[in-house]
Amino acid sequence: MSKLPNVTASIFSVMSQLANKYQAINLSQGFPNFPVDEKLLKISEQLLSANIHQYTPMAGLPTLLEKIALLTKTNYKRKVDIKTEMLVTSGATQGIYTAINAIVNKGDEVIILDPSYDSYEPSVLVAGGKPVRVSLNDDYSPNFNRIASSITTKTKLIIINNPHNPTGKIWEEKDFEDLELILEKHPDIYVLSDEVYEYISFKHAHISINTRPKLIEKSIIASSFGKSLHVTGWKVGYLIAPEHLMKEIKKIHQFLVFSVNSIAQHVISEYLDVVDFKEVAEMYEKKKALFQQQLEHTRFKILPSEGTYFQLVNYSEISSKNDIDFAKELIIEHGIASIPVSVFYKDATDKKILRFCFAKTDETLIKAGKKLHTI
User: Fold this and answer.
1) What is the Cα–Cα distance from 57 to 64, expressed in whole angstroms?
2) Locate the Aminotransferase class I/classII large domain: which residues (predicted)?
């Protein structure tokens, strides 16, 4: 008997396979196609011949944990105990899966805000929990009336994603205040905050759970070096959580992966001494501006992108087809791949919106723009 009977190939795989088949420009999956920082490559080359090829400690390389703690203190003014409140994971997805399975028991309910990243629900189901999908507002801000009315005596966890994939929405101060009010009324509910795009925000600064004293003791925060340093294939992320939660998370982590790639941890540890995350945000802001410029004078309507490296567009003036069929048409007939946003909803809400990834070379974005102008 399958634990995930309704899970099939992800839309990301489907669209990338179609893109490869038709030699389309792939703006579907969220990975950069440009080279990593030369400083990172240089550090990698220097360390490759060092004696760093065996297991690291289960919770992570000590020097890397120290650097993450410094990063957290510098950016969020939070002091984290590296021995009891932090864990290096094999990517944020593994961290999220591990956290959910440490907290959620059979019959527990987990609130997921739609549109939502596709790994949340399967992780809840494997844990024996019940996903409760709650739609965001039309502008993709959280609807706390809906959230509050979805809470029952079985609610164990609320999963939030900020900056948000697929929409690029960033939570505001008022959103966190409303969440805090809800959790004051329901003190037994935990929060899992997916913040993998935390260093990619534009006009509005990202607000981390790390900065919310009322939420810290009941929250798990997931971060991703793959996203922040554009090395998605390295699959290195980390979790920050209070000791009583991290203790349970580590129990599962040690039997799931035990420890994370040693070379990647050593390289990232040294690279954190020289990388400037403000430059990362500035780079992506320029790419967003370039891609939006390519979309001007097309029939696509550009929607706001406050963070992440994703751009939503509405195509309702172009076609009445559902978003999955239109996305396939774009690949087959026009040579450009995107992700239909309906797949991020439990009920397949179709607002005629596609998600493009602009974490690509300028040349790629300009070529994509030329194709989009023909549609």
Assistant:
1) 11
2) 24-365
